[in-house]
Amino acid sequence: MDRIQKVAARLGKKAPISLRVNPDVDAKTHPYISTGLKENKFGIPSDAVYETYQYAASLPNLEIVGIDCHIGSQLTETKPFVDALDRVIVMIDELKKLGINLKHIDIGGGLGVCYKDETPPSVEEYANSMKPALEKLGLKVYMEPGRSISANAGVLLTKVDLLKPTTHRNFAIIDAAMNDLIRPALYEAWMDIQPVVPRTDTVEKTWDLVGAICETGDFIGKDRSLALQENDLLTVLGAGAYGFVMSSNYNTRGRAAEVMVSGEKSYLIRERETVESLWEKERLLPEE
């Protein structure tokens, strides 16, 4: 806040601010994407909210307009959302008693999707669970539906490069890897993997679908019953969220191309990275 105050004062402006609070609510999701517990790094701790808002109100070039919270991602029930909202409403009421009147509340995002057998609430169930309390507030409401919009709007297309059956496991080595989609390696996330053209001429086996990166954690799926041959195309469903944005050039691998499909038409919207593109931003040291 002090930084914003200094910049706003220098510009002769009054900067609108909205502060993120931590309601200390268990989102009941993967610990890496839980963001609303007091041990998480996010937001103002609940025991420091009022002091922080009062300090913000004392700064002449700041205008307090709202309060925000976001408790996590891939939530599959409404109760954590409601619990967080209830706690934030208590804060709003107390701030009002201190003479701090807000214009909006941002309830964040986190609504989950079905990757395997999850049963997340529908958008209607999500909205209806909080609607009565939000209507009583009379504030403008913001929400941030990220994964729930984009996850199932994208797929990762990959090719089977090599089949490697062993006495212990059957490995299907594909041209996608953890640098393209890190969710399985990072979160042990389950991704639905389906053949583009199902085969009827090959025996179905249990396969681990792995990339060519030099780590055992480089996999997209394990223990999948599929009828595969080399050069088959596979689709990894639900890859539209936390896919490309978390991709990297690990192991000197270029990022995949992106194609937008609209009805019968398709458009290349991001070119595949080339080997040359991996070092095009690098610069040689000057010769002495």
Automatic annotation (TrEMBL):
| Pathway(s) where this gene product acts | Amino-acid biosynthesis; L-lysine biosynthesis via DAP pathway; L-lysine from DL-2,6-diaminopimelate: step 1/1
Swiss-Prot/TrEMBL GO biological process terms: lysine biosynthetic process via diaminopimelate
GO MF entry, a single one: diaminopimelate decarboxylase activity
The residue ranges of the Orn/DAP/Arg decarboxylase 2 N-terminal domain are 3-151
> Amino-acid biosynthesis among the record's keywords?
yes
Q: What is its EC number?
A: 4.1.1.20
Catalytic reaction(s) noted: meso-2,6-diaminopimelate + H(+) = L-lysine + CO2
Q: Give start-end ranges for the coiled-coil region(s).
A: none
Q: Which InterPro entries match?
A: Ala_racemase/Decarboxylase_C (IPR009006), DAP_deCOOHase_LysA (IPR002986), De-COase2_CS (IPR022657), De-COase2_N (IPR022644), Orn/DAP/Arg_de-COase (IPR000183), PLP-binding_barrel (IPR029066)
Q: Which UniProt keywords apply?
A: Amino-acid biosynthesis, Decarboxylase, Lyase, Lysine biosynthesis, Pyridoxal phosphate
Identify which cofactors the protein needs according to its UniProt entry.
Answer: pyridoxal 5'-phosphate
Going by the entry's taxonomy, the superkingdom of the source organism is recorded as Bacteria
**Pfam families, from UniProt?**
Orn_Arg_deC_N (PF02784)
Which SUPFAM superfamilies is this protein grouped with?
Alanine racemase C-terminal domain-like, PLP-binding barrel
Report the protein name in the record. Answer: Diaminopimelate decarboxylase
Q: Which organism is it from?
A: Acinetobacter baumannii
Q: What is the lineage of its organism?
A: Bacteria, Pseudomonadati, Pseudomonadota, Gammaproteobacteria, Moraxellales
